[in-house]
UniProtKB/TrEMBL annotation:
Pathway: Pyrimidine metabolism; UMP biosynthesis via salvage pathway; UMP from uracil: step 1/1. Residues 70-277 form the Phosphoribosyltransferase domain. This is uracil phosphoribosyltransferase. It comes from Lactuca sativa. Its EC number is 2.4.2.9. PANTHER family: ADENINE PHOSPHORIBOSYLTRANSFERASE, URACIL PHOSPHORIBOSYLTRANSFERASE, CHLOROPLASTIC. One of its GO terms (cellular component) is plastid. Keywords: Allosteric enzyme, Glycosyltransferase, GTP-binding, Nucleotide-binding, Transferase. GO terms for biological process: cellular response to phosphate starvation; developmental process; uracil salvage. Belongs to the UPRTase family. Gene3D superfamilies: 3.40.50.2020. It is an enzyme of class 2 (transferase).
C-alpha cells in the first residue's frame, strides 16, 4: 500500500492503492507547502499491526495528526464508479451508496471497537471467544438526507449502536451550514465512539458544524471517525487544522471544487440522486 504524508502541522496521512492517483501529487497546493509520496508497497496487515502495537509513548504523535484512509478494496472502487455514472438510476444509486457505506464502516471499525473475551461451549467443546462489548457506547450520526443512505447498513455492521440524526443544510449562495434538525443527546456517555456519516466532504462547513456539536457534548477528536463517499482537499485541509487526531474514511479523494462548492468530478447531489427529488 502506498502512503503519502503531508508535512504541515498537523499533517495528514493518506493510505491508498499503489500507484497513487495522479492528482495526489498536486495536493501540496491545497494541503501543505511540502508533499512527498512513497510508492513502496506495504501490506495492509503490517500497517494495522504497527498501529495496534504502538506504545503509549509513540501514540502521542499519532494523536496529534489527522489520518485519512482510502481503503484499496475493489468493491469500494466499483461502488464509487457506479455512483459517479450520471446514467445510474435512482434505485441503483441508492443501493450503491448503501453498499459503499457498509464497506467503509467495516474498514473504519477495524481495531476500534471495544471487545470482551470469554469462554463458551460450542457443539463440540469449549471455545475461547471475543465479542463486541455492548457496555461500551457506539453512536452513528448520519447527516441528513444522504447520510441516511450511506449509513443504511450500520446496524448490521456495528452491534449495539444508537443512531442520532442530524439535519444540516448548506446555503447555496454563502455555502454556510445551518442546523434544521438536532437529535443529539445533551451529553454523550463517557468513552462514546462516534461515526459521523456524510457522503460528501466538499467545503468542510457541514462536517465541521457536526463535529463541533458532537465535541460540545463530550466526545474527543480521537473518538470520532468520519465516513464519506467522496472528499477533496479543501475540506481535508480545514479538518486537519482544527481536529488533530480525527480519522476520515473515504471512498475516493477528488481534486477540486466548483465555484459553488461542488466536488469535481464527484457524483452530483447525493441526496437528490438517492431519493429522486
Amino acid at each position: 500500500m502506498a502512503s503519502a504524508r503531508i508535512s504541515s502541522t498537523p499533517p495528514v496521512h493518506f493510505t491508498f492503492s499503489s500507484p497513487a492517483p495522479p492528482f495526489l501529487h498536486n495536493l501540496s497546493h491545497s494541503l501543505a507547502n511540502n508533499f512527498s509520496c512513497s510508492n513502496r508497497r506495504q501490506p495492509r496487515t503490517r500497517f494495522l499491526s504497527l498501529k495496534s502495537q504502538a506504545t503509549a509513548e509513540k501514540k502521542a504523535p499519532l494523536d496529534n495528526r489527522m489520518l485519512v484512509f482510502v481503503p484499496p478494496h475493489p468493491l469500494i472502487k466499483h461502488w464509487v464508479s457506479v455512483l459517479r455514472n450520471e446514467e445510474t438510476p435512482c434505485p441503483i444509486f441508492k443501493n450503491a451508496m448503501a453498499e459503499l457505506g457498509r464497506l467503509l464502516m467495516y474498514e473504519a471499525s477495524r481495531d476500534w471497537l471495544p471487545t470482551i473475551s470469554g469462554e463458551i461451549q460450542s457443539p463440540l467443546g469449549p471455545a475461547t471467544v471475543e465479542f463486541i462489548d455492548p457496555r461500551e457506547p457506539v453512536a452513528v450520526v448520519p447527516i441528513l438526507r444522504a447520510g441516511l443512505v450511506l449509513a443504511e447498513h450500520a446496524a448490521s455492521i456495528l452491534p449495539a449502536t444508537k443512531t442520532y440524526h442530524l439535519g444540516i443544510s448548506r446555503n447555496e449562495e454563502t455555502l454556510e451550514a445551518s442546523v434544521y434538525l438536532n437529535k443529539l443527546p445533551d451529553k454523550f456517555p463517557a468513552g462514546t465512539r462516534v461515526f459521523i456519516v456524510d457522503p460528501m466532504l466538499a467545503t468542510g462547513g457541514t462536517i465541521m458544524a457536526a463535529i463541533d456539536m458532537i465535541k460540545d457534548r463530550g466526545v474527543a477528536n480521537q473518538h470520532i471517525k468520519v465516513v464519506s463517499a467522496v472528499t477533496c482537499p479543501p475540506a481535508l485541509q480545514k479538518l486537519s487544522e482544527k481536529y488533530p487526531g480525527l480519522h476520515v474514511y473515504a471512498g475516493i479523494i477528488d481534486a477540486t471544487l466548483t465555484d459553488k462548492g461542488m466536488i469535481i468530478p464527484g457524483l452530483g447531489d447525493a441526496g437528490d440522486r438517492s431519493y429522486g427529488t
